[in-house]
Amino acid sequence: MSQQIEYVVGQRWLSNSEVDLGLGVVMAEDIRSVLVLFPAVNEERNYAKKQNALARLILSDGETATHVDGWTITVEKATEQDGLYTYSGKRHDTEEYASIVEVALDHHVKVHQPEKRLFLGQLDDPKWFDTRLSCWQQQYDFASSDAVGLIGARVELIPHQIHIAHEVGKRYAPRVLLADEVGLGKTIEAALIIHQQLLSGRAKRVLICVPSPLVHQWLVEMLRRVNLHFSVFDEERIEAVKESGENPFSQEQLVLCSQSFIEEEEVLHQALSVDWDMLVVDEAHHLKWTPDAPSSAYLAIEKLSHKATSILLLTATPDQLGHESHFARLRLLDPARFHSYQSFVEEEAKYSELAQAVNPLLNDEPLSDEEITQLQAVSADVDPVNLDTPEERQKLVADLIDRHGTGRLMFRNRRASISGFPKRIAHSVPLKLPKEYALLHDPADDIATQLHPERSAILDDKWPLFDSRIQWLIKLLEDVQGDKVLLICAYASTAMQLAEYLRSKTSVRHTVFHEGMSIVERDKAAHFFATSEQGAQIMLCSEIGSEGRNFQFCRHLVLFDLPLNPDLLEQRIGRLDRIGQMHDVNIYLPYFENHPQAVLFNWYHYGLNAFTHTCPVGSDVYEALHSDLHAALQSPEDMENWQDLVEQANNLSKTLKADIERGRDRLLELNSSGGDKVEAVIDRIIGADNAVKMMKFMSRLLDSLGVIQEEKDDQVFILRQGESMMFPIPGLHEEGTEVTYKRSVATQLEHVHYLSGDSEIVTHCIDAILTDVVGKSSVCFVNQVDAPVGAFWLEIIGVLAPVTDAKWQLYRYLPATPIRLCINAKYEAEDIHFESIFKVKPKMAQQLITALSEQLKTAVDKGLSLANESLLGIKNDALNNMQASIDNEVERLKHLQAHNPSIRDEEVQFLVEQKQHLMQVISEATPYLDSVRLVINNPK
Ligand SMILES: Nc1ncnc2c1ncn2[C@@H]1O[C@H](COP(=O)(O)OP(=O)(O)OP(=O)(O)O)[C@@H](O)[C@H]1O
């Protein structure tokens, strides 16, 4: 005879068949029936006692009890009095000891333990068990790919960028100078590094400071490339929170602002009162520094650099404001190491000797005795006997790269070593000097005045009426037949007066871009220029248009005047000559004959060859010859003199370039490009970035979650919210969200979401399921003809997922690891997979569970202990792997510290602590039961 169940008013019971009713409370009972109220849905039900339709909820020690008011405790003690339980333990919010009487439990209770859910009859559709398993597996594969943060970026996999991003992104507290030449993708590298640091938990708070014309572009690039939503901070934003008295910088984690804004005293003060994990500064060559007069920009960033753990400085032209400033920027990265400019210069000379000596190795040439001695002078470990095989030579090169002075701090790729750039075609346009300018010409004027005659105050704004460059420009606009043209000149006034002329005298669609405009106005202008139809044909930019902006959709560049600084010239050309440019770039160079402009044109064209090619030695040549150049500009009529100078510049630039070619910088370049090493990283990204696999996984998952996926075309799908969506999914719009599983489509179609392991939609769906109770317990029938009717198995998912602070990077060695086991009636793990499963009616499921309850309890225990055994190997591997890899890295860094002072003590210290911490966490890890599915054989 079955024992009579006792119901007491106030007790909490769950319905065995209707999980959605939530937690019921007994309202009344008599000899035959019990009346239960389900407050979550406000429904009352009457059950016959012998029906056994209810399961009593009793919480055990360690479980979470939620009070109807929302606060929670971890149960430490459960006491029963008059048939009612009281649970006691520490409140999670106040840490005070508290009790919850059973009747005051939250109605929306979710029982989390799978076995408890099973016995309480909290059953889900059995397909959810498979969904949970595939989510765990996807999460595991992704975390083990070593490409977290790289996979989901909407970028082409360009090797030098991937190398830098991977190398820096995985470091603890990286502090580096990204100094690739113009347009090689430093912004993208920074985006990838930030993304990895954020996703891996190494960084949470990031501050990006850029010149104001680039704020919007950075905002868009961060969103478009790596789906990071930065908040733009400006006066308006600060003003808006002023009244609240709060520090605006503490309100956001990802902040983007202009450098001039952050320099403001009050703003800087507020930014310094909070901590930053990463500080990113673009166009860092603006941070001018001399020992006696550091610029205010430098001082502001220096203060911030003390607050930030990691720093990324970006500049294409590190020497633009002189070598001292370059030194000072390295000092921002590591003040202890770069304390004296003099010793930095001496050290550089030494490293350049090392790079010279290594040349034969890089060129795969035999080393002479003298060269071996030379190498030994810088690196005592060099053993000539061990240099016979390519592997030994490669190892030595790798060693020497590590020791190269700024190797770990600075990355600089040259365009010359990267293929795929368009041709640059220089069109010289010599023009007769208008008589109005000739009359004004005064050799005593300074160079700037002479080079820009249109700025003479006497001319007011009349110069476009006679300046022959204007008529030539109008003709060019006709000749290029509607193609876009970018014009850059030094001054805003020139750009504005040119624009006024075009407006009043022509019908050319034009726009301007200069420092007198607000950021919003500038972005509007850039957008108007970028718009293909009905957009501006020409954009007239002052010098602020020459930095950072992306104008590669345009292939005609007019340099209305020329800057004296060769780095600035390269920056100007770099707006068009950058990744993504599909055509040859036409550079038009109007200048006046027998005029300082003609001298400057010849200096660049014949002296430095800086129009058709990048000139990496431009600033060195300028520095060596600048007083001669200035003298020559003052006397353009002395043709013999300036032609001599041009020849000198040409010779010097050839010599300096030859120096570079001889290997002066080849170690740095090799270190910056990653050489052959990067292929393996790219392979891993491609491997983890399997569009077909991801599509299969997500299609099933979305379907289970109630999201409708429609095919738009071969590559693009539209996700729509279904009527019975289980969870809200961020990024899913009411009108539908376009998604793709293909990187190539995602990089081309900006509005389309890229669904990869990194994607927010994917991780959100997985997290939503794995943190919910759905699928934790279920029952199904199978049709196994070779097994007896009524045979049963208990499938379990055990998960090894110790928890620790993200900064320790546990996932790199032991990501949450699932294991599926199938326990049979003999309590053995059986290697069996069920092709088709069938649902079981709730009442029948409940009866089966009740009938098998003793066996099931034993099967759960056995399953967990078998999971523990199986995962032991994985745990030991993780432990060994972690120890070996950290020991290796520590040893390598310690060894290097003796030769290369750019290894910071704190990096080594972190690794030592990381190892100790992870050893403990991994050793103590035990698997927990994530879900169970009872499988009963019921052949048809
Ligand atoms: N991997 C990539 N995939 C797709 N587009 C890219 C990639 N790398 C760079 N680009 C595009 O090429 C252009 C140049 O890249 P980016 O702005 O990062 O270069 P940069 O080195 O910062 O330039 P600058 O020296 O002018 O500041 C941008 O339009 C960028 O979107």
From TrEMBL:
Please name the InterPro entries in this protein's record. Answer: DEXDc_RapA, Helicase_ATP-bd, Helicase_C-like, Helicase_RapA, P-loop_NTPase, RapA_C, SNF2-like_sf, SNF2/RAD54-like_C
Q: Name the Pfam families on file.
A: Helicase_C, RapA_C, SNF2-rel_dom, Tudor_1_RapA, Tudor_RapA
For whether the record's keyword set contains Nucleotide-binding, the answer is yes
Top class in the EC scheme = hydrolase
Q: Gene3D superfamilies this protein is in?
A: 2.30.30.140, 2.30.30.930, 3.30.360.80, 6.10.140.1500, 6.10.140.2230, P-loop containing nucleotide triphosphate hydrolases, Tandem AAA-ATPase domain
Please state the Enzyme Commission number of this protein.
Answer: 3.6.4.-
What's the superkingdom here?
Bacteria
Coiled coil (residue ranges)? 639-666
Per UniProt, the keywords (alphabetical) are: Activator, ATP-binding, Coiled coil, DNA-binding, Helicase, Hydrolase, Nucleotide-binding, Transcription, Transcription regulation
* Binding, ATP: 180-187
User: Helicase ATP-binding domain location, by residue?
Assistant: 167-336
Show where the Helicase C-terminal domain sits. Answer: 472-640
Task: Please indicate the residue ranges that the annotation assigns to the motif DEAH box.
Answer: 282-285
The text of the family note is:
Belongs to the SNF2/RAD54 helicase family. RapA subfamily.
What the entry lists under HAMAP family is as follows: Helicase_RapA (MF_01821)
Read off the PANTHER family from this record.
DNA ANNEALING HELICASE AND ENDONUCLEASE ZRANB3 FAMILY MEMBER, SWI_SNF-RELATED MATRIX-ASSOCIATED ACTIN-DEPENDENT REGULATOR OF CHROMATIN SUBFAMILY A-LIKE PROTEIN 1
How it assembles, according to the record, is: Interacts with the RNAP. Has a higher affinity for the core RNAP than for the holoenzyme. Its ATPase activity is stimulated by binding to RNAP.
Q: What does this protein do?
A: Transcription regulator that activates transcription by stimulating RNA polymerase (RNAP) recycling in case of stress conditions such as supercoiled DNA or high salt concentrations. Probably acts by releasing the RNAP, when it is trapped or immobilized on tightly supercoiled DNA. Does not activate transcription on linear DNA. Probably not involved in DNA repair.
Recorded protein name is RNA polymerase-associated protein RapA
Instruction: Name the gene.
Output: rapA
